[in-house]
Amino acid sequence: MLAGVWDEPRPPCPPVRVWRDWAVVAVLVASSFVEVLLREDQAWAPLLVGVGLVVAACLLWRRTSPLAAVAVAFGTLLAFDVARIVAVDATGLQSIAGVLVLPYALLRWGAGREAAVGLGIILVWLSVTLVVEPTSPAERVAGYGFFLFSAALGAAVRYRTSSRLREIEEVRLRQRNDLARELHDIVGHRVSAIAVQAQAGRALSAADPARALATLVTIEEEASRTLTEMRALVGVLREGTGAALAPRRGVADIERLARPGGDVVGVRVQVSGDVEVVDPAVGTALYLIAAEAVTNATRHASGATRVTVDVTASRGRVRLRVHDDGAARTAGPAPAGYGLRGMAERASLLGGTLRAGPDPAGGWSVEASLPRPVRAS
Question: Transmembrane helix: present as a keyword of the record (predicted)?
């Protein structure tokens, strides 16, 4: 823990000096001059004013150079106190109480090692000045308490700000992951379907021009839907854009994945149970998982001729099974990529489970089980 504190870097982007900083410095400088003018002992007035000016000026660099500001300010005060012990018969100015801001700035804006060194300088000065000034034990404890409280307050504000920044970064990371998942599941599925249809059209162009033309029409429709859904995703990122364009697929749309066999892998869809009252979020997740699984089977299942999609809604859960009859891999890990990760994330976010792997009966299966909260009527 101590090593982690020692290696703690400075917080990024410390604020620049603003008018309030200059106002505080002006007040401290004016207070120093007024206090010197009202003193009866004027012998050491220039020295006292000089100390006050140095302390006030250090406040201007307390954020950008916290250790240097602490070292100069408290080093000056330490030298002044040593001079008081040796030769100078003068009391300090009350206006130098502005140094209480520096321990706060040190813990708020300094690196870990800067904070440790700076606190050491402050404690050394406190030990000397409390010896020079005739103080009671209670006053000494109060003196240490004031400066340690200022430092603790700076550390607390820094921790709170860092926690807030981490939360914001986590939210941004989740948003990026959500966007990546949407792009992969929605747009990626559409583009994959277009590629498959284009391959079929090329194979049919010479033997059956009519079917090839029908395939081109399908490609055009898929491209139009892809463009619409891409605009919807982009619209989510733009402030003020409504969500009306956002795609909202459901369990009923899974039946649209069905297609006859032939030049491309055939897809058979069977839906059973009362799926009309499935929660929209669950329905959308099931559709996207099914579409991604069908796309993967179409593109990657070696020797597959048919893909079956079974959706079963029971009392408490909805189950999806996508199976292809391709050559099953009996060894090795599942194929790497964002598809399986995205499907697993969708199921997990809704409290469900997903399993993908070789089927004991042959081929490859993707099985998802999601809870079934009933949609309010």
Answer: yes
CA distance 30 to 41: 18
- CATH 3.30.565.10 maps onto the chain at 257-377
CATH fold, domain 257-377, is: Heat Shock Protein 90 (3.30.565)
Q: How many CB atoms lie within 10 A of CB 217?
A: 11
> Could you tell me the CA-to-CA distances from 238 to 15, 230, 235, 269 in Å, in that order?
29, 13, 5, 37
Query: Which amino acid, residue 172?
Result: R
pLDDT above 80 for 83? yes
Summarised one tens digit per residue, pLDDT across range 252-284 is: 888 888 877 655 678 889 988 877 778 887 888
Q: Which tens digits make up the pLDDT trace of 125-136?
A: 988 888 787 778
Say how far apart CA 73 and CA 93 lie, in whole Å. 14
Gyration radius (Cα) of the chain, Å: 36
